[in-house]
Structures are given as C-alpha cells and as structure tokens.
Design goal:
The chain folds into 2 domains: 221 residues, Rossmann fold; 170 residues, no CATH class. The protein has 21 helices and 5 strands. Strands 2-3-4-1-5 form a 5-stranded parallel β-sheet, sandwiched between helices. Helix 8 links the parallel strand 3 and strand 4. Helix 8 packs across helix 9 and helix 13 crosses helix 14. It is elongated, with a radius of gyration of 29 Å.
C-alpha cells in the first residue's frame, strides 16, 4: 500500500504552487488590508516637510503587521505623486541586518548613503567624495559613541582623543557634510526596515548611529520596527529607559492602523478556497465547518503574515493526507500547531484523554480528565480562551462531555475520519499512515 506522502498527484502539486513567498506588496493596487491610505498620508507628511532640519519618523507595528508593505507604498506615492515644483527625495534603503560586523555599522551606513547619491549631480558628487574619504573616521567615532551611550563621560573622552589625533576629521567633517547638504537642498529619505531582526546590542547600536547622524540637514529617516521589542533591546544591555531613549531620537512616531478584521477574514477565506479548490471531491459539513472556522481558526489570525503562515502550512501538509483525514479537523489542528504550540503538544501527548467515547473514560479517570481539561484551558491565551473552548470541544467531544453514552458515535467518527477516533488520531500528527494500514482513499 502506498504511503500518502509519496502519492503526490496533480492536485498535490497544484496546491504546492499556492505557496506564498511571504513577500511584501509593492503596488497599492494590490492592497488587501487598507495599508494604502495610511501610506499615502505618510508619504505626504514626508513630502511636505520643508524645513532644513533633519527629521526622524518611526513606523511602529508588531511582527507581520505589514510595515515593509507600507514602506513600499510610501516609496510608490513619493514617486507617483511628485509635484511640479519639487522632486521626490533620493531614497536610501539601509538594511543593517545584512551586515554582521557590529563595529562598522556606522561606516556601512555612510557607504550606502554615498552609493545612493546621484553621481551626475555635481553637488552630490562633492558630498559623496566627502563621505567616501572620511566615512571610516566618522563611522568609527559614531560606533565608539554608541558603545558608551552617546553623551558625556567616556564618550566625550573618546571624541577628545580622536579630535587630538586628527583635528579636522570628525567634528569638522560632519560640519562640511552638513554644509554640502544645505547647499544641495535635495532631500534624502533614509529607510531602515527589519530592525526587529537585529540582536539586542545591534538594535541599541543602530539607534546610537541614528542619534549621532540625525541632525544632518535635509535628511529624513523613516524607521520601521516593533516599539516594544526595541524598548526591551535598549533596556536589556544598557539599563537605559528604552522608551525615553527612543523619544529623544524620534520626532514623529506613527502606529500602523489596526487592520480591519473583515479584511483579514476575507483574505483567509479566499486562500482557503484556493486550497480546497485543488481537491474538488471534498464536501464540508457546513454547520460544523462554520463552528470550527469561527471559533478555532479566525481568532488566531491577527496580522497579514498569519494568513500566509497558515495557508503555507496547509498547502504543504494537507495534500499528503487528503484521503485520510477530515478536512475540518485537519485545518483546525494545523492552526493549533502553528499558533498554539503548547496546546498542540498537550493534545498530541494525551491521545487517550482526547479520543474515543467520553463516558467510558469518565468511569475510571474523572479527576485525570478534569486536570487535563484545566491544563489545556490554561494553555490558551486569555483573549481567545472562551471562543476556543467551543472549537476544542467540537474537535474532541469526549473531553467536553458531548459524546453521549452511545457507542454508535464511534463508527460515525470512523466514517467521517475524525481526529477524535482512536484509530485515526495519529494520522493528524504523523502526516502519514502507519505501516500496513489501509488507506481510506483505496
């Protein structure tokens, strides 16, 4: 008998093509989550900043909430909606996580800034030459400042040492670069994304670099990061109050607007339809599917990336066992595996408690079942606990006391390939049949 994992038919291959690379969107026309209007407003804020002073803007949002997509939309609007009397800013994308050498972060930043300047512009050419010639010295000074917190004490002694060593290198050069920027009067937008990917000490060093260079005239910094993660990173190694530290650097903070739940549900539903469309023979129990979907899947989808993660998972795993499992149960247990790993492990390691006919267990293991029920209840986040109880009881009627006293329910569960049947439980976790088992699809 063939193992379902080796039985990759045309439908299986088609489902694999539905995998998303989790790439951020670049064109506002493809906006599914209402990011475009906010990005347009942010682009207008950047475009309308007419003063000569530098500006630091922060875009705060949790992991997977669409920060990179919004940055892409901002760039789109800056280019597409440029006015007749003002050119769009020169955009410099700086990705600090590409560089592993922590000691040269500032140097790398200045080199990228130099490379992004249009060489045909004579004013920018002079500025680029300055950055190229002296970037190493300025970068070294900034890195040393970052290590010591950026002001007073040791930082002052380091700058004093460098000033004595090369009197014109650091303060004079920074002033010359500032003069060139004022004379050029061409705006530069520095976009720094993926700050969340950095180690704690790299996060703090990056903000030290920004703090030291933020006063360059006509330069706007647009930073995207999870505020709480950055605060914790700053406080972890330095002991500095992270929130106050960021307030001294960032002049204009923005929070990503909350995504409309209906937009997330629409995206999830559309992609689920795509997965199911690869298997036209599947018929869902609509009433039961509605209960599991509403109470067991939708509450776990918080940000756009959650949709991608979930659909990627079932697009990969479902084709291998499509003939062996109940699709409703499988989609639910996969959601638990991805978003509630503690509950998943608890279920997987307690087969005897969650499968089979409820009353036969209650006669000899009442207290054990109660303890298990309490354990999985506590494994749920408080904000989804009430709804998710309904979903878990729908998957495993025995632990909710819903299976009644009739053993007639076991053949029904077997026929419907339910996860709560003792003979089928393992398939949902092994993603294959046991050796010698007979496939339902044969």
């Amino acid at each position: 008998m063939e193992d379902p994992l080796n039985n990759c038919n045309a439908a299986s291959r088609a489902a694999m093509t539905a995998l998303s690379a989790d790439r951020p969107c670049t064109d506002p026309k493809d906006d599914l989550f209402g990011h475009a209007p906010f990005a347009r407003h942010l682009a207008k804020t950047i475009r309308c900043h007419r003063g000569g002073d530098g500006l630091v803007i922060a875009l705060h949002g949790p992991w997977g909430s669409g920060k990179t997509t919004i940055l892409n939309y901002v760039c789109h609007y800056l280019e597409a909606e440029k006015s007749d009397n003002a050119d769009p800013p020169v955009v410099v994308h700086f990705n600090p996580w590409w560089f592993s050498g922590r000691e040269d972060l500032a140097q790398t930043f200045l080199r990228q800034l130099q490379a992004a300047l249009p060489a045909k512009n004579a004013k920018f050419k002079r500025l680029g030459e300055l950055l190229g010639e002296y970037g190493e010295d300025i970068g070294r000074a900034v890195d040393l400042i970052g290590v010591t917190g950026g002001s007073g004490g040791m930082a002052g002694r380091i700058l004093e040492w460098m000033f004595k060593r090369r009197p014109r290198d650091v303060p004079a050069l920074k002033a010359r670069i500032a003069d060139e920027l004022r004379e050029a009067k061409v705006r530069i937008l520095v976009i720094i994304d993926d700050i969340d990917r950095l180690d704690h000490d790299e996060v703090r060093q990056l903000f030290a670099v920004i703090k030291a260079l933020a006063d360059f005239p006509f330069v706007t910094y647009l930073l995207a990061f999870d505020r709480e993660a950055a605060v914790q990173a700053i406080e972890r190694d330095s002991g500095l109050p992270g929130a106050r530290y960021l307030e001294k650097i960032i002049q204009v903070p923005f929070e990503i607007p909350l995504i409309d739940r209906s937009a997330l549900q629409h995206a999830l539903s559309a992609r689920l339809d795509t997965v199911l469309g690869q298997h036209p023979g599947i018929a869902l129990d609509r009433e039961r599917w509605g209960e599991v979907y509403v109470f067991g899947i939708v509450p776990l989808i918080r940000v756009p990336r959650d949709v991608v993660r979930y659909i990627n998972a079932i697009s990969t795993t479902f084709p291998a066992v499509v003939d062996e499992v109940n699709p409703i149960d499988f989609f639910a247990i996969e959601a638990i595996r991805i978003f509630l790993p503690k509950l998943y492990d608890l279920i997987r390691s307690n087969e005897s408690k969650v499968t089979g006919w409820g009353s036969s267990r209650r006669t000899n293991a009442d207290s054990s079942l109660d303890a298990f029920r309490s354990a999985w209840d506590q494994s749920l986040p408080s904000e989804v606990r009430d709804d998710f109880r309904t979903a878990v009881y729908c998957l495993f009627p025995g632990i909710g006391g819903q299976s009644g006293d009739s053993k007639d329910v076991l053949p029904e569960w077997r026929r419907d390939r339910r996860i709560c049947h003792p003979e089928l439980f393992h398939i949902y976790f092994r993603l294959s049949l046991l050796p010698g088992a007979v496939s339902h699809g044969k």
